[in-house]
Every structure is written in structure tokens, then in C-alpha cells.
Amino acid sequence: MITKGQPFSIEQYREEGYSGPVQGLSLQEADMYNDHFFEVLGQSKYSPGPANVNLSACHQRHRWAYELATHPGIVDAMKQILGEDIVLWAMHFWYKEPGNGKYIPWHQDINYWPMEPAINATAWVSLGYSLRENGCLRVIPGTHKQLVEHTINVDSQSAFGQGIAADRIDESKAVDLEMTPGQIAFFNEATFHGSEINHSAIPRVAFSVRYTTPEVKFKTEEWTGDVSRIKTYLVSGQDRCRYNDAIIGEIPQR
Ligand SMILES: O=C(O)CCC(=O)C(=O)O
Known about the structure:
alpha+beta, Jelly Rolls, six-stranded antiparallel beta sheet, binds 2-oxoglutaric acid
């Protein structure tokens, strides 16, 4: 169900592992950033097709994406979750064009990340419409209180090669986070989440931006993915720990 967008609730975030949808960006801002996204794809937003560009870490390469990743609608909620000292460390566009054919299996993000201690808050921002038909984000409230090991997933329609085993999932408790342009859901490093295939003609254009605190050290030597995707940007407050000085990111000029 599409809702008008409620205020961010720290109580819900703590208790259920997520909060939202919140109207974090205006419709005009969402539209503008959606246009930037399609420019990067090299496509018209009126005839969206498969992406053949890198959708990770756009904030390291494009000034507009850095401004989007640090939008006050995101940063203000992050401060409520994490405190005054906050560090942006990753961003990824989750784009499902019509006919994309892939679903995102249920997973807990922390199973992928080399962070010590495990502290992360994600803002998942919808730049267009995210509906059941085009595979909106889904979460299972309360699942952030336990860690579950991922198992191998060999389904060819799964976008990831691993996820949470089906017998650990109670689908009846899943919440479909349908969103209008500019709406945001916040969730933590352990909340079970995923999304279905886009069965519609409507592209699903969304991105996740990840924040943490300076006390977290990134163990990049243990990361099996592309290490260049992790760069730290102190967005508010101070870094008294300096654990990640070797991976401080540069804000793009343009
Ligand atoms: O966009 C999706 O469907 C999944 C997003 C996700 O897995 C994430 O933000 O960690």
C-alpha cells in the first residue's frame, strides 16, 4: 500500500529494524535525480532498458550522486540512528528495468561486509515508483535481533548467489514497502530484506546509501568484493578514531 510518508521513527527502527516510508526528498528532487541516473545509463527514462554501466559508488564519481547520498532527508535520520558523528561508506543503485527477470533473495547485509563492529544504517531511496508489480523493497520486521548464516542459492533468477534459507523465512510477516518518488525506508545491517522480480512495464529506480560511525574499522583485506567501492566520508561531527584514514574518499568536483 502506498502511504503519504510518515515521519522517521527511531522507536520503530530500534524495535522492528526498519522505519518508513518517509518522504525524504521532494518530488522535484526525486525527478531531477532520476534524470541524472538515466543520463549516466545513457538512456531515455521513457524507454528504460538494461544497464551496462557500473551502478556502485556513483557518489565517488558524480557530484550530483554525492549530494544525493548526503541529502538532509537522509543525514538527519542517520544522526538520530547513529549519533552526531556519521560516516558515509557506500552507495549502490538498485535498478530493475522492465523484464529484468531477477529477484533479490532474502538476506542480511552484514553477512557481506567486513566491518568491526557491525554497525550500519541503510537508507533505501525510491527515485521513481516502487510497487509490488515492479518489485518493491520487502522487509521482515523484528528480524534484526538475530544473525542467520546465508546458504548457497543456485536459482538462476536470484540476483545473489547466497541468501537466507527458505525455512528461516516467515513470508506471512513480510512488509511490502511500496513507495512514491522521493520516499525512503531505513533499515539496519541485520534486517531481513529482499525484493521480487519486476513484472511490470515500470522501471524500479532506487538506491541504497550506507552510513556508519567512526568507531567502525573496515577490514578491507578480508573483503572479497571490489574494495574500491568502500570509501569513507565524514558527513557530520568528528572522527576521533581515524581507523579508516587509508580509505578516505574524495568528493567529486562535478
Ligand atoms: O533493492 C533491493 O531490492 C534490495 C536492496 C538491498 O539488498 C540493500 O539495499 O541492501
